[in-house]
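Exam revision sheet. Question 4 asks you to relate a sequence to its structure. Input first:
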Amino acid sequence: MSILILGATGRVGGQIVTHALHDSHHVTVLVRTPEKIQIVNENLTIIQGNVLNKDDIIRAMHGIDVIISALNTDGTTTLSESMSYIIEAMENKGIKRIITVGTAGILQSRVTPNVLRYQSIESKRKSVSAAEEHYKVYDMLKQSNLEWTIVCPTYLPDGERVGKYRIEHNFLPEGGNKISVSDTAEFTFSQIKSSDNLKVRVGIAY
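Answer key, structure tokens:
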């Protein structure tokens, strides 16, 4: 399978690249700074570019079967701006499957189920700008014809792989308060072979 991974220099994205190469897939990464990718592998194609450049996105999608996005918000609107280019390019190229890493903030609140966690007292964050960006992405994917899955981790310490965790559609598993980067990356990568979580937000926690 040919996989395009966006956000490959981030904590989760970097581990997804490792999983994909270990599983003998062909991996393409679109990065602004290629030197940050320390992996040398014949199945890895590194494209220098920017997710905010529509032509770079189109170029990176050549021959791709599935897209995994672990892009961060970085306090900007990069996430939502780039997603409009990503969706357009995918629809033009006939690529259906996209898996993104979101945030537990865009899951439904258990306390007030008609609002999202970041809008409720469940949110512990002072700033909601990152959650608002992730919500824009969710809204765009929901309106598209793509086969999307949004993996929504809660607090993300680096930590070791545990290999056991709970998932729930559209809600954070009850009492869940953390999930490691390693387990989040493993679960996100596993979605390329799964149709269990199409067109849903998946809460993930221990």
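Marking note for examiners. The chain has a mean pLDDT of 95.
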